Structures are given as structure tokens and as C-alpha cells.
Amino acid sequence: MDRTERFYKIDHLLQSRAPVGIDVFLKELGVSLATFKRDLEYMRERLNAPIVWDRDANGYRFESGNVAGPRYELPGLWFSPVEAQALLTLEHLIEGLEPSLLGAHLKPLKARLTALLSAGDHSAEEVRRRIRVIPFGARAHEPRHFSLLASALLSRRRIRISYFNRTRDETTDREVSPQRLTYYRANWYLDAWCHLRNDIRSFALDAIRAAEPVDAKVKDVSDARLDEVLASGYGIFSGNKVQWAVLRFTPARARYVSQEEWHPKQRAKWLADGSYQLEVPYSSEKELSMDILKHGAEVEVVGPPSLRTQLAKQLGEAIAQYKQP
After folding, report:
1. Distance of CA 267 to CAs 264, 298, 323, Å?
2. Least crowded by CB within 10 Å, which of 84, 188, 250, 305?
3. Best CA proximity match to 294, nearest among 278, 269, 313, 314
4. Are 241 and 289 in contact (CB under 8 A)?
5. Can you tell me the distance from the alpha carbon of 10 to that of 62, in angstroms, rounded to the nearest whole number?
6. Pairing mode, if any, of strands 170-184 and 158-165?
7. Residues β-bridged to residue 244
């Protein structure tokens, strides 16, 4: 156990069965006498723990009655992996902002993040040095577009955008009613009602070439309808028609994939030969295909036939590029 856990263990023993002999501490903590004494001294001097030696009982206990001096308080247990990632990601995002964007408003937040990272006896500098958060696949977008879209989103105003479609290599002008901003796989997307297509669409912010407010009535779409279209299938490239992909992973790959969540409504089971069958809903093959292909020969698309055919075509085209002329 680490040092902070030992502090809590020492506190628990003294609270529940004082006086506590040294041999009990050493057995319960699994440390040497020297380490135990250092922990005890730290708790007394740094945490103001009123721990005293009871000569008559031959053990340690908390001093009874009112104790002069600062109040005794244990440090918070350190963060979970999710909390550590969130704090370091927040810090990374703040550092990446333009200096003039929020200026002095961010200084107190940065100071608070540093204080939070300095949990227990770990300095913020040590935490940053020992734990890395590596953004992968993030695409740069125009900061002023984000500000404009966020403002229009919250004030319920329409926006006119010039949007670049990478697949077709063309730019179109759209009027959209912003519904929500989504941060997904290190990139930002605008979920909106597209007045050109008369339907719900998701726009990558890095593909927005220009944006300006429009003096026109905004169309509101319910959260339920947005989720029905954008959250019913795999990833963010969703739609109204949902199918179920059936994937079979080899026993070796199954040890990894079985611990992953591909979709909140996924279905999964282990097969007799040790392979792993995963079923996920999807509306668009784009993103699902990319995630399937990265597993190579370790996965087989069992169904539906249309997805299996599409993956076979993509694999065939990939192999063709490596054939000798």
C-alpha cells in the first residue's frame, strides 16, 4: 500500500482498537519499523495527528480531550485514473488556449488545478512528470469559430457556415440551427439542424471554413430526437436506420476487446473455442469499419452481409496496393 493508504490504516487502527502495539502496526501495514516511525512522525508534524505513546498500555493511542493547535485532518486519497486524466486534460486544454482568450479569468482556475494535482505529499510538478496524457488524432480548428458557435448555441441563434466535405472534396454553404457541441475522440463537433438538408447533421469544427450569425428563427430539436439520430448507432456518424454488426474476435484479441465498451447497448458473449462475439448497433459503416479494420486478422465480421461485403472490398483494395507490379 502507498503512504496515504498507510495513514488511513493507522488512523483506522487507532480509532477502532487503541491502544495499538507496534507489532500490530508492522503486521497490518507490512512495513519496517523505520518506515512506520517516519509515517508516525509525518502524521504528527504535518497532519497534526494527536498520537501519543501510552507507556502503561504499551501502545499508541489518540490523545483524549481538547488538543491545542491546528485541527487534525487526513489528506484526501489520490485520484482515480479517470480523475487524474480529467485534471491533466483540463490543464492541457487551458495551456493550449490563446493567451488573450480568457486571460485573467483562467488564472484562478489554473491555480486551483495545480492545488488539486498537489494531493497528499505529491507536488504538481511530480504528477505532471510521472503521468502523461497524450492527445491523439486532434485536428486544429479556428478558435473564433468555436466562440461564435458556442455563443449562437446558448443564445439560440442561427449560423451560416461554409463547410468542407473531405469525402467529396467540396465546400457548401449551409444555414444551421445549433443544438449542441460534442467533444469526441479529441475533436469538436457541432450537432445541428441543417436547413439545406432539412435534417439533423453533425459538423466537424475543423472542417468549418467560415461562420457568421444569421438573423432568422432557430429550429429547436428535442434531446430525445437528437439521441435517436446521433446516439442510437456506433460512434457519431449515426442515422435513423439502425443495424446490428456481429463481430467475432480471436481468443488472443478477445482478452482486450472483452474489457472495452464499443456502445452502451452492445451485446457480447464468449464462444466455446475461446473467441469473443460482440454485437453493436450502427447506422453508418464509416467509423465502425475503421475500428474493425485496425484489428486486422484478429476479427471477422459475421454479419450483416452488407457490412461483411464492404469490409471484404476494403481489405481487397488494401491488399492490391501491396502486390508487386
Report:
1. 9, 19, 38
2. 305
3. 314
4. no
5. 11
6. antiparallel
7. 281
Instruction: Give the tens place of pLDDT for each residue, 257-293.
Output: 999 999 989 999 999 999 999 999 998 888 899 999 9
User: In this predicted structure, which of 32-41, 45-54, 156-165, 274-283 has the lowest mean pLDDT?
Assistant: 45-54
What residue type is 12 in one-letter code? H
Per-residue pLDDT tens digits for 68-109: 556 777 765 556 666 676 777 777 666 665 555 555 666 777
Higher pLDDT, 77 or 165: 165
Tell me, what's the pLDDT at 91?
Answer: 73
What does 252-285 look like in DSSP terms, one character per residue? HHHHHHTT--S-TT-EEEE-TTS-EEEEEEES-H
**Contact (CB, 8 A) for 162 and 172:** yes
Tell me the sheet residues that pair with 256: none
CA–CA separation, 206 and 99 (whole Å): 20
Angle made by CA atoms 1, 130, 188, in degrees to the nearest 5: 115
pTM value?
Answer: 0.63
Helices 305-320 and 285-293: crossing angle, nearest 10°?
A: 60
